[in-house]
């Protein structure tokens, strides 16, 4: 067998068989913003043995930064409102709020 053909077959097999590793939680991932639920942080990561050969994302992310933002920034991002959580005002999703507070632009 020609060495070029063998290399092509090996690369093709690697790309077809490439599978993601298991999801691994990321401990103490920083939040990109500290208020208004404007931030995101990486909660889980996984790796692909052949970069670009695995479908989907390598990271799971979630919104973060629940404390209220100060003026002039909006208090909470779209889809979030001021709500009372454990006796603290925080940004919460609209349907999760137990005590709704008026928002400021």
TrEMBL record:
Top-level taxon: Eukaryota
Identification of the protein by name: Uncharacterized protein
């Amino acid at each position: 067998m020609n060495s070029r053909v063998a290399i092509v077959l090996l690369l093709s097999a690697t790309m077809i068989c490439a599978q993601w590793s298991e999801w691994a939680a990321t401990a103490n991932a920083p939040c990109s913003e500290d208020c208004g639920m404007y931030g995101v942080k990486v909660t889980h990561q996984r790796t692909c043995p052949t970069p670009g050969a695995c479908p989907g994302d390598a990271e799971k992310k979630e919104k973060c930064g629940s404390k209220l933002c100060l003026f002039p920034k909006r208090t909470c991002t779209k889809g979030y409102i001021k709500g009372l959580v454990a006796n603290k005002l925080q940004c919460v999703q609209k349907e999760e709020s137990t005590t709704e507070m008026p928002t400021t632009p």
